[in-house]
Amino acid sequence: MAFEDLLEDPVIQKYLHELVGPKGMPVAAAPPDGEVTDEELAEELDLELNDVRRALFILYENDLASYRRLRDEDSGWLTYLWTFEYDNIPENLEEEMYRLHDALEDRQEYERNHEFYLCEICSIRFEFGEAMDFGFECPECGSPLESMDNDRLVNAMDDRLAALEDELNIDADA
């Protein structure tokens, strides 16, 4: 898939934005063909060199860019030539979805196996043990803590897990 096709996908745009942030997004969204130096990118995109380098390093850490070093014979300076490798994006997104699935399963188990109490004034949630330690009174405002029903949250997690399992072709009974 060509860079242009990938970059038109809003999911991929969001993924890149989450990785490099707003200052790095111009770097991620405008990958040149072939090799380019960080200085050339900074000049071409009218960005601070440090912002470009930060974005390139983040892309490198996520297997979306690579570099090769050249040493100038006269000065001894190293020049880094960067290449963008966005073919890895779909695989990276799938790994992220698996991590999300595992984290959501862990959180759902936590929600199911604990009893919670809520201060309706401060909107602070406490586990049963914490609530008991505070005498079922909010330590911030002194209001009584009310038993909290988290069934809607657990059900929403069920729905999200089912959607992820469908997307990832995970057999929920396995």
Automatic annotation (TrEMBL):
Gene name tied to this protein: tfe
A Pfam family assignment: TFIIE_alpha
Annotated domain remarks: The winged helix domain is involved in binding to DNA in the preinitiation complex.
Molecular function per GO: DNA binding
The keyword ATP-binding is assigned to this record: no
Name of the featured protein: Transcription factor E
InterPro entries hit by this protein: TF_E_archaea (IPR016481), TFE (IPR039997), TFIIE/TFIIEa_HTH (IPR017919), TFIIE_asu (IPR002853), TFIIEa/SarR/Rpc3_HTH_dom (IPR024550), WH-like_DNA-bd_sf (IPR036388), WH_DNA-bd_sf (IPR036390)
SMART domains hit by this protein: TFIIE
Coiled coil: 93-120
HTH TFE/IIEalpha-type domain segment(s): 8-90
Assembly behavior: Monomer. Interaction with RNA polymerase subunits RpoF and RpoE is necessary for Tfe stimulatory transcription activity. Able to interact with Tbp and RNA polymerase in the absence of DNA promoter. Interacts both with the preinitiation and elongation complexes.
Family according to the record: Belongs to the TFE family.
Function in brief: Transcription factor that plays a role in the activation of archaeal genes transcribed by RNA polymerase. Facilitates transcription initiation by enhancing TATA-box recognition by TATA-box-binding protein (Tbp), and transcription factor B (Tfb) and RNA polymerase recruitment. Not absolutely required for transcription in vitro, but particularly important in cases where Tbp or Tfb function is not optimal. It dynamically alters the nucleic acid-binding properties of RNA polymerases by stabilizing the initiation complex and destabilizing elongation complexes.
One GO term of the biological process aspect: transcription initiation at RNA polymerase II promoter
Keywords: Coiled coil, DNA-binding, Transcription, Transcription regulation
